[in-house]
Design brief:
The structure holds three protein chains of three kinds.
Chain A (H helix, E strand, L loop, with lengths): L1 H31 L16 E6 L4 H14 L3 E6 L2 H9 L5 E4 L5 H6 L4 E16 L10 E2 L1 H9 L8 H6 L13 E5 L4 H13 L22 E3 L1 H11 L3 E6 H6 L3 E2 L1 E3 L5 E2 L3 H9 L14 H5 L11 E9 L4 H16 L14 H13 L3
Parallel strand pairs in A: 1-2, 1-3, 5-10, 6-7, 6-8
Antiparallel strand pairs in A: 3-12, 4-8, 4-9, 4-12, 10-11
Chain B lengths: L4 H39 L2 H4 L1 E4 L4 E4 H32 L2 H16 L2 H28 L15 H25 L3 H9 L4 H11 L1 H16 L3 H6 L17 H8 L9 H34 L2
Antiparallel strand pairs in B: 1-2
Helix pairs in contact in B: 1-12, 3-6, 3-9, 3-11, 4-6, 5-6, 6-9, 7-8, 9-12, 11-12
Chain C lengths: L3 H42 L2 H4 L14 H31 L4 H12 L5 H16 L4 H25 L3 H9 L4 H29 L27 H9 L4 H29 L5
Helix pairs in contact in C: 1-10, 3-4, 3-6, 3-8, 4-6, 5-6, 6-8, 7-8, 8-10, 9-10
Classes of the chains: A alpha/beta, B mainly alpha, C mainly alpha.
Chain lengths: 372, 305, 281
C-alpha cells in the first residue's frame, strides 16, 4: 500500500513539474519577443512564424541572421537545413514559405512558375576542397586543378602520390604519401554538389561529362568513397577519415579548421578562397534586372570565371519566394528581406561574403515586389 | 454467437474504435501500394535488378538497398541469436531470486530504449571498435573469402550496421525466447532430472523442444530489423554500392528513404520509387511476422501435454 | 572421479556465462556512455536546458532544448490517449467476440503490422496530412505516432485481457451479469495494473520514435510553439539532426538530450517495476 502511494506521489510531482515548466516556457517565449522593443515597426505585434528550408550551405549564416532578427522583431523564422533539393521540394508543395537553394531554379522549373516566383542571389560564398593528409604540414596548401579533381572523383587517380598530383605540387613531392585517396561526396540532393560538378565539367577539358552534373549524381567512385549527408556530413567524414578529400562550403571548412586546397583558376593561377578572390569572380557576372527573371545561367558564369584573382568555385546562393502571400506573411517576409539588406549584411559569418551592391538592390526589389 | 440484444449493442458500440484501428493500418498499406504502382508500371522489372540512383535523369534501380536491407538483417539476426540464446538460457536456468530480477529488468529496459540512442552509441563507439579489432583482422587474414575481400575504410558498412542492429534487438529476442522457454511444461524438466541428466543435458533437451519457437523468434527479429531506420542511417555508409563484401558501405531501404525522400518531389518518379522500396520491405516484414506468429501458435498447441 | 558429462556441464556453464556477459556488456556500455557524455552537458547547460532554445553552429552558449521538450510533450499528450482508447476498445472487441471475421481481421492486421518500418508511416502521413494541410504540424506527427504505436498497444492490452483466467468470466456470467458489466466491473479492474504498464510502455515507445517524425513535424526549434497545427520539434529528432553535424556545441546538446531521454526512460521503467510488484492474480 505504501509503495503504491509512493508511486502515485512521484507521478503527481512529475506532472506538476511538467505543467509548471510549460507555463514558464510559454511566458518566457512570449516575453522574449516583447521586451526588446528597439524596433518601432508594426511587426512588433506580428506574432507570426515564417517557415523556410533548403541548402545546408547557408545554414550557419542564416541561423545567425534568424537569431538577431527574431530578437529585435516579433517574427520567428524557422529554417530546416535539409539540402537544396528538399527545400525546393517543400517550397513547391506549399509547405514552406521560402526556400534557399545554392543553384537557382533550372530554366524549365522557372518557366513553369514564371511570374509567380522570385529568386534573389542574396549571399556569396565558396565551395572549397578540403583534405585530410596527416603527413602534410598545416601551413602549406595542396594545389589541385579541375583535371586532378575530376580524375580523383572518377577513380582514375587513386593514390595521393600520383605523378599528376606531384606535378602540381613540386614542393611537396616527397611528402605526398603513397596512400589511397578516399573521396567524400554528398548523398542528398545538394546545391553544393551542383556547384562542384559544374566546376569539374567546366575545368576538366572533357574528362568530367555533362551527365555527371547536378544536385544528385551517380558518382563513379561509389564504393570506394564515403557519402555524407549535408555539408555537415561531408565535414564530419573528412575530419574523421585520414587521406580523404571532400568538397564543402567555405564556412564549414573554417569553423572546423580543415586544410583547404588551392585551386587553379581559368587564368592558370592557383588561388585560395578569400573575400578578394570571390568578389573578383562575382564582378563579371551579368545579373538579370528583376527577381522575377530567369537566373539559370548565373552559376555557369560565376564558376570558373575569368580574372586572374578569381577563385574558380565561387558561389552565390539564392532565396526562392512566391510573389504573392497572404497579408500577414507578405508583411513579415518584406520585413525580413529588408532587414537583411540593411542590417543583416553587417553581420556576416566567416566563410560568407556580403554580395556586391547590385545584388543587394535585387534583394530590396524582391521585398518590394512581394504582395498579398 | 450473440446471445442477447444487449450484447449486440455492446458489439456495435465497440465497432467504431476497432474499425478505426483497422482503417488506419489498412490505409497505410493501401497508400503505399497505390503510389508505388506508378513507377512499377513505368520502370517495370528494371527497378529491382539494377543498381542506380540518378533522379536527375530519372534512372532508378533498387537492388542495392534491398539486398542491403536483407543482408544487414541476416547479420543482425545472427548476432542477436548468438548473444540472446545464451543470455536467455542463463537467465532461465542459472539465476535465481534477486539477481534474476535485476538481469531481467535491465534487459527489459534495454528493450524499450529509443533506437536513436543505439544509433548514437554505435556510430561513436561500436563502429571504430569493429573496424579496428574485427574487420581489419578478418580482412588481413581471410580476404580470400569474398565476404571479407574489401578493405574497410571507415568502418561504416553492412557488417557494422548488421551488428549494431543485432545488438539493439537482443532484448526483443531474449524476451521471446525466454517466454517460449518458460512456457515449456515443467514436466519435461522434471523428467530429465528424474533420469539423472546434468543441467547441460536438460537444457539441450528443452532447447530442442523449443526449437520451433526459437525459429519463430528469429523470424520475427528479422522482420523487425528490416524496418530499422535510425541505426541503419548512422552505420551503413549511405552509398549505392552493391558488392559481396560485407565490409563495404551500402544502403538499406530505410536509410535510402531517410536520405532521399525529402527532395523526391523535385523529380518525377523519385518519390514513387521510394514507395516501391518501402512496399517491398513492408511486404517481406508482414509475411515474416505472420509466419513467425503462426509457428509460435502451432507450437504452443502442440506443447500442451 | 571425473565423468566426461560433468566436465561438459561445467564447460557449458562457463561458455554461457561468458557469452551472456558479452551480450550484456555493449548495452550497459551504451547506457554508461550516454550518461557519461550527456550528463556533464546537462549540468553545463544548467536550468537553461529546460528553457532555452538549441544552439546554432556558431553559438557560444550551449542553450537548451525547450522547443523539443514541449514538442515531445504535445505529441505524446495527443497521440497517447487516442492510441490507448483505440487499442483498448479493439482489444475488448476481439477478446469478447473472437469468432467474428472483423475480430480475426483486426487481430491479424495489428499483429502483423507490429514490425512496420516506421519510416514508411512517415512517408504516408506526409502525403496524406502534411501536403494537403500545407504545413508541417504537431497533428501530423501525432497521427504518425498513433499509427506506429497502435499495433504495439493493441498486442499488449490484448495479451493482458487474454491472460485473465476464464474462471473470473465464468463466475460473473453464472450470476447473470451482462457482458458489458462483466467487462467493466470484473475484468478491467483485474487488468488495471497490466493496463497501467501497457500505457507506460506505449508512452515510452512514442517518446523515443524518430523515423516516424522525420518528414512530418517540421523541426521547429528556434522558438517554442504550443499550437497543434504549427510545426513542432521532438527530442529524438533533434538528437538525430544534431549528432550528424561537425559542430561540437551542437553535438554536446545532442548528447545532453540523449542522456535526458535515457533518464526519462529509466524513470518510466522504475514506475513500471513499482506497479508490477503488486501483481497478484
Amino acid at each position: 500500500m505504501a509503495k503504491k502511494l509512493i508511486a502515485l506521489t512521484v507521478v503527481v510531482i512529475i506532472a506538476v513539474i511538467i505543467v509548471l515548466s510549460y507555463y514558464i516556457l510559454y511566458y518566457h517565449s512570449k516575453s522574449s519577443t516583447q521586451d526588446l522593443g528597439s524596433s518601432k515597426s508594426i511587426t512588433k505585434t506580428l506574432e507570426i512564424t515564417l517557415q523556410g528550408a533548403g541548402a545546408t550551405f547557408v545554414y550557419p549564416q542564416i541561423a545567425e541572421w534568424i537569431k538577431l532578427f527574431s530578437s529585435s522583431h516579433g517574427i520567428q523564422v524557422n529554417y530546416q537545413s535539409v539540402g537544396s533539393g528538399a527545400g525546393l521540394s517543400m517550397f513547391f508543395q506549399n509547405i514552406t514559405d521560402f526556400a534557399c537553394s545554392d543553384p537557382p531554379l533550372s530554366k524549365d522549373t522557372w518557366e513553369k512558375h514564371r511570374g509567380n516566383v522570385l529568386q534573389v542571389p542574396w549571399l556569396a560564398g565558396a565551395v572549397v576542397v578540403v583534405y585530410n593528409i596527416p603527413e602534410l604540414p598545416k601551413n602549406i596548401n595542396l594545389k589541385l586543378d579541375g583535371v586532378a579533381l575530376a580524375k580523383i572523383y572518377k577513380g582514375e587517380i587513386v593514390y595521393w602520390s600520383d605523378p599528376y598530383i606531384k606535378s602540381l605540387n613540386p614542393d611537396l613531392m616527397d611528402r605526398l604519401p603513397d596512400k589511397e585517396i578516399i573521396p567524400v561526396y554528398r548523398t542528398d540532393s545538394s546545391g553544393t554538389t551542383e556547384l562542384f560538378t559544374t566546376f569539374l565539367y567546366k575545368s576538366s577539358n572533357g574528362i568530367w561529362p555533362k551527365e555527371l552534373v547536378g544536385k544528385t549524381v551517380n558518382w563513379p567512385i561509389t564504393g570506394r568513397g564515403i557519402g555524407g549527408k549535408g555539408n555537415e556530413g561531408v565535414t564530419q567524414a573528412t575530419i574523421q577519415t585520414s587521406y580523404s578529400i571532400g568538397y564543402v562550403e567555405w564556412s564549414y571548412a573554417i569553423a572546423n579548421n580543415l586544410s583547404i586546397a588551392m585551386i587553379k583558376n581559368a587564368e592558370g593561377l592557383f588561388v585560395q578562397p578569400s573575400e578578394r578572390s570571390i568578389m573578383s569572380a562575382l564582378e563579371n557576372v551579368r545579373l538579370p534586372p528583376s527577381p522575377l527573371d530567369d537566373f539559370s545561367n548565373i552559376i555557369y558564369e560565376v564558376i570558373y570565371a575569368s580574372g586572374s584573382e578569381s577563385y574558380p568555385i565561387a558561389a552565390v546562393t539564392h532565396i526562392v519566394l512566391w510573389r504573392r502571400y497572404d497579408g500577414l506573411k507578405a508583411l513579415a517576409l518584406k520585413e525580413f528581406l529588408t532587414w537583411i539588406a540593411n542590417e543583416g549584411y553587417e553581420h556576416i559569418v566567416p566563410g560568407y561574403i556580403a554580395p556586391p551592391q547590385s545584388f543587394r538592390k535585387l534583394l530590396i526589389e524582391a521585398a518590394n515586389t512581394i504582395t498579398s | 454467437m450473440l446471445i442477447s440484444k444487449r450484447d449486440k449493442i455492446l458489439f456495435y458500440l465497440l465497432l467504431p474504435p476497432a474499425t478505426t484501428l483497422l482503417c488506419f493500418l489498412v490505409l497505410t498499406i493501401l497508400v503505399i501500394s497505390s503510389i508505388s504502382l506508378d513507377s512499377i508500371q513505368i520502370f517495370g522489372i528494371k527497378l529491382f535488378i539494377s543498381n542506380i540512383w540518378n533522379p536527375e535523369h530519372e534512372e532508378y534501380g533498387l537492388i542495392a538497398p534491398i539486398i542491403g536491407s536483407i543482408s544487414t538483417s541476416i547479420i543482425a539476426i545472427l548476432t542477436a541469436f548468438s548473444l540472446a540464446m545464451p543470455l536467455s538460457i542463463f537467465i532461465a536456468e542459472y539465476l535465481y531470486g534477486f539477481t534474476k530480477k535485476v538481469f531481467s529488468s535491465i534487459i527489459e529496459v534495454m528493450g524499450g530504449l529509443p533506437t536513436i540512442l543505439y544509433a548514437m552509441w554505435a556510430s561513436t563507439y561500436l563502429v571504430p571498435v569493429l573496424k579496428n579489432y574485427v574487420m581489419e583482422i578478418l580482412y588481413s587474414q581471410f580476404s580470400f573469402i569474398p565476404l571479407f575481400s574489401c578493405k574497410p575504410i571507415t568502418g561504416f558498412s553492412v557488417f557494422a550496421a548488421g551488428v549494431s542492429i543485432g545488438i539493439s534487438i537482443v532484448p526483443y529476442v531474449v524476451a521471446m525466447i525466454s517466454e517460449a522457454y518458460q512456457s515449456i511444461p515443467f514436466a519435461y524438466k522434471e523428467a530429465c532430472y528424474g533420469i539423472g541428466a546434468t543441467r547441460y543435458e536438460t537444457i539441450k533437451m528443452l532447447v530442442s523442444i523449443a526449437k520451433p519457437a526459437i525459429l519463430a523468434s528469429l523470424i520475427l527479429g528479422f522482420a523487425r530489423s528490416l524496418g530499422e531506420t535510425t541505426i541503419a542511417v548512422a552505420t551503413v555508409g549511405n552509398s549505392m554500392y552493391l558488392s559481396s563484401c560485407i565490409f563495404a558501405p551500402s544502403y538499406t531501404v530505410s536509410a535510402l528513404i531517410a536520405s532521399q525522400f525529402a527532395n523526391a518531389y523535385l523529380y518525377r518518379y523519385a518519390g514513387s520509387v521510394l514507395y516501391v522500396g518501402a512496399l517491398v520491405i513492408l511486404a517481406i516484414s508482414i509475411l515474416l511476422s505472420f509466419l513467425g506468429l503462426t509457428i509460435i501458435i502451432k507450437w504452443r498447441t502442440r506443447l500442451v501435454v | 572421479m571425473y565423468s566426461w558429462r560433468k566436465v561438459k556441464d561445467r564447460m557449458f556453464f562457463v561458455l554461457i556465462l561468458t557469452i551472456s556477459i558479452l551480450a550484456i556488456t555493449p548495452i550497459i556500455h551504451m547506457m554508461v556512455a550516454v550518461l557519461a557524455n550527456g550528463f556533464p552537458m546537462i549540468l553545463k547547460a544548467g536550468w537553461g536546458f529546460f528553457v532555452k532554445t538549441p544552439p546554432t553552429p556558431l553559438s557560444q552558449d550551449i542553450g537548451g532544448i525547450a522547443p523539443s521538450l514541449i514538442g515531445t510533450a504535445i505529441l505524446t499528450l495527443v497521440s497517447l490517449p487516442i492510441t490507448i482508447v483505440l487499442a483498448l476498445f479493439s482489444a475488448i472487441l476481439v477478446n469478447e467476440f473472437p469468432r467474428n471475421p472483423l475480430s480475426i481481421a483486426i487481430d491479424v492486421v495489428a499483429k502483423s503490422l507490429a514490425s512496420i518500418p516506421t519510416i514508411a508511416v512517415s512517408m504516408v502521413i506526409y502525403i496524406l496530412v502534411v501536403v494537403p494541410m500545407g504545413r508541417f504540424s504537431a497533428l501530423a506527427g501525432a497521427i504518425a505516432l498513433t499509427i506506429v504505436a497502435l499495433p504495439y498497444a493493441y498486442t499488449y492490452i490484448s495479451t493482458v485481457l487474454g491472460s485473465i483466467p476464464l474462471t473470473y468470466r465464468e463466475a460473473a456470467y453464472s450470476i447473470a451479469m451482462s457482458r458489458w458489466k462483466t467487462i467493466v466491473k470484473v475484468l478491467l479492474p483485474i487488468a488495471k495494473r497490466g493496463f497501467a504498464i501497457g500505457i507506460l510502455m506505449t508512452m515510452a515507445r512514442i517518446l523515443g520514435e524518430t523515423a516516424a517524425l522525420l518528414f512530418v513535424v517540421g523541426r521547429y526549434r528556434t522558438a517554442t510553439s504550443i499550437s497543434i497545427i504549427e510545426p513542432v520539434d521532438a527530442i529524438p529528432l533533434l538528437i538525430f539532426d544534431y549528432i550528424l553535424t561537425p559542430y561540437p556545441i551542437m553535438q554536446q546538446i545532442a548528447w545532453a538530450s540523449a542522456a535526458f531521454l535515457l533518464l526519462i526512460y529509466i524513470t518510466i521503467f522504475i514506475a513500471i517495476k513499482i506497479i508490477v510488484k503488486e501483481v497478484r492474480l
